[in-house]
Amino acid sequence: MTPQIDPRAGAAVKAADRAHVFHSWSAQELIDPLAVAGAEGSYFWDYDGKRYLDLTSGLVYTNIGYQHPKVVAAIQEQAAKLTTFAPAFAIESRSEAARLIAERTPGDLDKIFFTNGGADAVEHAVRMARLHTGRTKVMSAYRSYHGGTQQAVNLTGDPRRWASDSASAGVVRFWAPFLYRSRFYAETEEQECARALEHLETTIRFEGPATIAAIILETVPGTAGIMVPPPGYLAGVREICDRYGIVFVLDEVMAGFGRTGEWFAADLFGVVPDLMTFAKGVNSGYVPLGGVAISGAIADTFGKRPYPGGLTYSGHPLACAAAVATINVMAEEGVVENARNLGASVVEPGLRELAERHPSVGEVRGVGMFWAVELVKNRETREPLVPYNAAGEANAPMAAFAAAAKKAGVWPFVNMNRTHFVPPLNATEAELKEGLAALDTALSAADAHTD
Ligand code: PLP
């Protein structure tokens, strides 16, 4: 039920926002943020009472939807008991969150370093890898997103890093697998896997293996387009890392905590990294929290020697209480299984059926509740529906798509020529079908822009 709301309050919220809030990744005068009055479960609504089904899960983090009563209550209880306490102390909510996370992370990733979000988790994973190996270079994929802070944005392959590229010394980029856009080199997933592994190893040899501290990869790259790696790729990277003494970092900030239908996407591939970053879904983003799960060998490096790094709010009690409650809700309510089952039985067939009918759909790919729909101008040439546009100029076809989706009652995730279907992991079958129906309408708007 949408509660009673006052549209005039929305106007005041909007006016103050436009006067004083400086928005991320935006040209301040070209944006028109929606004033949101409230949210519950898979929906949010504006001050006019218009409801949207959130196909974005915020920024792909509200994995158990908005305002889950058990998590809200846990935050309230923690606030009443002990709102904050410095990281050097052992605190119940912090140690319990670390225990629950370590219980679920693969292999011997049993020590948890807490951060405030994903980017700082990446910063610390890289620092740990450099100190552990005594080497400096870090390798990352071109099609990737690792966060907006200095080191993390430089590891990011997405053009947003260009703004601060001067600080990218020590970063070496490579091409991870992406069959749909690699077809002149590879025709099958097996060929693409072999191409990507050979390219990675050749790059390492040319850079000098003894100079490379870490390879960082999103287990399933998210923001850059949800490219599920072919079978064997991550195991192959693991082998290469072992061969050259390189630390293997998997970034599970987006893919972790159930998004792919497993607690961690690494479990889909049976691969155990040396370091694994997480954030977002760890507590559905109710209070900022991220972290690094650390292998025994790397933890031992800092057994007698201090780890030189930390954050004032590391393992904040409110954030950790939210994580404990979220993980328990996910386990008790079968949220990971829901993502796996409805992903396979409703989302995948639904998106594939839309792909058959809409000429603007070039490819549908994903797993669990983690899906990308790649929109093209022409299915034969695979020309993206938007020209590559680093200047961020108006993107008419995708704007038409997004406007039609919103009119049909869903909030779509749009990035370049893609829309991502990334609803909360506990979305119901009816909600997912509602999302697919709205997407059907919106894709018709995109079809109008095809050849
Ligand atoms: N790593 C990955 C894979 C992400 O998707 C993101 C954010 O989208 C980040 C890191 C950065 O996380 P945060 O925005 O919490 O700093």
UniProtKB/TrEMBL annotation:
GO cellular component, as recorded: cytosol
One protein family per Pfam: Aminotran_3
UniProt KW Transferase keyword: yes
Any coiled-coil regions, as ranges: none
Keywords for the protein's UniProt record, in alphabetical order: Aminotransferase, Pyridoxal phosphate, Transferase
NCBIfam families assigned: PRK06062.1 (NF004718)
Protein name as annotated: Aspartate aminotransferase family protein
